Please model this.
Amino acid sequence: MLKRRTGGRRGASRRPLLPCLAVLLAFWGVAQSAVPAAAAADSAPPFSLCADPDNLPFSATSRDTPGYYIELGRAIADRLGRPFEPVWELSYFAKRAVRTTLLAGRCDGFIGLPDDPDYMGQKLIFSKPILEPGYALVLPHRMSVKTLSGLVGHRVAVQFASSPQNPLATRDDIQMVTALSPEEAMRDLSGGRADLAFIWGPSAGWLNKTTAGGAYDVIPVAGPHMQWRAIIAFAAGDTALRDQVNAALDALGGEADALMKKYGFPSGSPVSLANGPAPALAPHPRGRRRRHSDAGALRSPATSLGSRRGVRTHPRQYLTRSPEPQALQGASGSRPLRPSRCAGSSLRGRGLRARKGVATGSSFASAAPRPVGISSKVNAC
Model:
């Protein structure tokens, strides 16, 4: 009897193991089926974008603050099911950077170029716009400006050879405080040497957020050579990837807006400063006005958005640095102007004191150069 009872207990103890084994086998099957999927994801080629390594708020090598373009690129790569890989390339001369990176097969796309069908001929195709950077007014919270006449009687910090300098140069009733970079303009504003600033909006928003503690309102301004649209460029034959990226951009929803807010980009509808005809300019003492040529890189006018010390202006070539042309040319399209370390020699003889003198106007009242690549830099020396 004892033996029978013992044998019965042993048989009973074996029975609960059967369901456990079935569950384990099921999990093993699921794990085995997941291995090929994981391997496929790991083997997917990276989605690589060429970007500037030192151009906040657009892009940087920093892990904590990689910039809007880099975080947007990561979000796109997630939706494509591919890892993201930035390819770093300085963007002082945007077209050359595009030739030596994107067109040389080093990356899948070049982020931050201007939405211009004629840009580099038929070599590129463009994504949907990813950003609309431009110039902006930086105002104390108590101040409101709706027209150009609203600047009358005020000291306005403006970057040398930038688009905002042109309309202001035609007004004898507005005092310009000329700076070599958005950073210097913001210092003039916070130091009481200017009442407001009219500078590259992405730089202004980033500096207001990171160094000024949100002490100012940054209002985008509409008008000729004031606002641009930035895109991702692809090699002309890469239409399939371009279409996939456009679909990924549509799927982002409000994620892109959240990133723009994170990096302080100006928001809201641009205000137009259009006014009636400005007072006539006195003739230039030498008989003619100097013209800036139309070449450059869409960057933040002057030092890269809060980064390097060289002045890079005009967002024409690479939409990041100081807006307008990647290389601001001097009179009649001669050598590029060389602010920053070469500022002293470049600015002498142009009616402008090297640090913050007031521009006479006549030297700068010509057509402003247009962007070549949207960024925050302006031309290297």
Summary: Confidence is low (pLDDT under 50) at residues 276-298, 301-317, 323-372.
